[in-house]
Q: What sequence folds into this?
DNA sequence: ATGGTTGCTTAGCAA
């Protein structure tokens, strides 16, 4: 199974790239983030024409997440469930091919110390509790998405420049470690011990031309599922050319 | 080599 995640930064602006990428890579599952559209404006017919089902949890202007899959998704869940008080559409999940797949758009956090940063940390704790309450680390589960955290300095091209930002702050890293401690492995790290691989480059300040990137998009998998991963790639080429997203797809392949 | 934000909404925010 080929399982991918991609923050497209507006599915409306990225529709042509999305369709071309699907046709080229043909993943079994693609988790999307930052749709910036309500479900009615998602290009459902276009992805269906390429053979994909779509589970969409949309929102106007900001946020919005989806899961595309070749086989029918089951047990769809939008947001955090019954007592969800999160006004932002950042989490959707479905069972695909027997795997519980979550597409998550973690809050960015704005500035360290801001209300947005507090929301980010609280959101991450809420996700950890959701996993604890609704899933088991012994089942096949993949938490995919824009996590907005670079796990360690290998994931940052210029650690000194980024160390005090919301993407690298010790509190954000610790919150991600607590989620992982529930029972998730960073599948990319299983296959690449070295640094220098990034999934996001700021549009500003020549981020991509200078390769001033961070690895903040991840496929985290429960351990038995992670052990089945045979390769994890970051499609850096997707950042090139006209009108790229600021993020590129991460593609994990699992043995059957 | 790449490009000096981008997208949504329409002045300012979010990333």
A:
């Amino acid at each position: 199974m080929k399982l991918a995640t991609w923050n497209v930064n507006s599915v409306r602006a990225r529709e042509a790239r999305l369709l071309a990428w699907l046709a080229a890579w043909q993943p079994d599952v693609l988790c999307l983030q930052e749709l910036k559209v309500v479900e009615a404006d998602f290009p459902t017919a276009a992805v269906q024409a390429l053979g994909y089902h779509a589970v969409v949890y949309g929102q106007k202007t900001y946020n919005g997440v989806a899961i595309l899959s070749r086989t029918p998704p089951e047990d769809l869940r939008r947001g955090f469930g019954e007592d969800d008080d999160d006004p932002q559409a950042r989490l959707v999940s479905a069972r695909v091919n027997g795997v519980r797949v979550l597409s998550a758009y973690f809050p960015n956090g704005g500035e360290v110390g801001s209300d947005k940063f507090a929301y980010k940390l609280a959101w991450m704790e809420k996700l950890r509790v959701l996993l604890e309450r609704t899933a088991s680390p012994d089942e096949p589960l993949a938490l995919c998405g824009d996590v907005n955290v670079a796990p360690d300095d290998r994931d940052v091209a210029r650690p000194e420049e980024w160390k005090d930002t919301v993407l690298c702050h010790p509190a954000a890293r610790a919150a991600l470690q607590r989620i992982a401690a529930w029972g998730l492995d960073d599948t990319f790290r299983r296959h690449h011990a070295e640094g220098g691989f990034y999934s996001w480059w700021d549009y500003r300040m020549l981020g991509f031309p200078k390769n001033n990137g961070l690895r903040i998009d991840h496929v985290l998998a429960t351990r038995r599922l992670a052990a089945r991963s045979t390769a994890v790639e970051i499609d850096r080429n997707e950042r090139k050319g006209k009108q790229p997203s600021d993020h590129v797809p991460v593609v994990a392949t699992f043995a059957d």
